Amino acid sequence: MLILHTAHSYFPDTSGVSEVVTQVSERLAVRGHRVHVATTLLPSSARRECINGVEVHRFKLHGNRRFGLRGEVDDVAHLLKDPAWDLIVVHCGQSAFTDIALDALEKLRCPIIVVSHGLSALSNPDWQEYFTWYKTCVLRTHGMVVLSRKLEEERLFGAAPDLHIVEIPNGVDLNQWDSVPQASDNRVGQGELLCVSNHNPFKGHARLYNVFRSLLKAAPESRLRLVGRSYPAARYQIGRLGVKGGCWYSCRLRSLLDPRFVLEAGLKRSDVILAFKSSDVYLCTSNWEAFSLSIVESMASRVPWVSFPSGSVRDLPGGIVVNSETEMAEVVSRLLSHADLRRKLGEEGRRYVEENLDWTVIASKYEEFYRATLAKQEVNGHPDRVGVDAVTGKNVLETKPLRRSVSRSPRFLDCP
Known about the structure:
Elements: E1 2-6, H1 16-30, E2 34-40, E3 48-51, E4 54-59, E5 61-64, E6 68-71, H2 73-80, E7 87-91, H3 96-103, E8 112-116, H4 128-138, E9 144-146, H5 152-157, E10 165-167, H6 174-178, E11 192-196, H7 205-216, E12 223-227, H8 248-257, E13 261-264, H9 269-277, E14 281-284, H10 293-300, E15 305-307, E16 319-321, H11 325-337, H12 339-356, H13 359-375, E17 385-388, E18 395-398
Parallel strand pairs: 1-2, 1-7, 2-4, 7-8, 8-9, 9-10, 11-12, 11-14, 12-13, 14-15, 15-16
Antiparallel strand pairs: 3-4, 5-6, 17-18
Helix pairs in contact: 1-13, 7-11, 10-12
């Protein structure tokens, strides 16, 4: 298959979306598929490069359909409309690449799948016009991947039986995880706490600090490591001047006032894995999550987690869900006092990851869905698409001719 993945974040950028798209793309490339990725141009990255068998196209692109699309919109649309693709897979609603693809649906010459990573703004009244448009467009695609049936997509699309939806969770690379040995000078057993998340306001770092301050009353020897990157401030585009966004500055101030609250950024991947393996308990205080990769990674590390209820966390073993800062501090204190309970939860989480969440298994599920989608394709046409009748508002089926080109576009390179 000649596959185009789109995502606003891709390696070497570090984010949950980047990890998903990178892992799936590289594993499909190893299996013989030709995989391309369209993503955002990073200051230190080339516009075109081949990374581990995946050809990466980078564009200057910002915004989304609600706030306005800025940058190389036409260039992205031109790549999407190339007749050579067998399949286009777009990641994340509320993002530029997905919105451009959905706007161009009628001009795409191959099936398109949407991989939705949760819809954080679905309950916001200011976004309702966007989501009305988004739902209408997605119903005209050839399928959707959701990370969990517990996310917002179920509320938006649950009553759309003609949309083919499959559930594929996030995962972890166990080979990479197990290749990093635990440090001999680690602080395991001494109240070592960890949170890995960027400084997006959704991540709830103020609540994280409140929990830590409450915990210190019972466990004054504890230390909390907050590992995560900042991101450029979006308002007035002042991030271009080096101004950091989110809660970076407030977290930095807290770390200066209390050396037990350790702020770390820019760690290598192996150092992040080492941080997980050197912890007693992992904390997640996010106000919103889809399918938390950091919790999955704590499970891979045999480290128990404690989290507020967000996204699919209630479906995962190996940790405890709490409902308040006070309850979180109490649960963490209990875990720090009971090594046997930490060990029990850690083993439960690791076993679940081994059986269900290894990236090799996850990539196979994506490949299977891709093949099934293409198998429905008629010899000389698109598979039936679900549309919406303008008069009745009911779902209708459409079939459009598939205009394919047998020649390779000159914009394609062959990765070694």
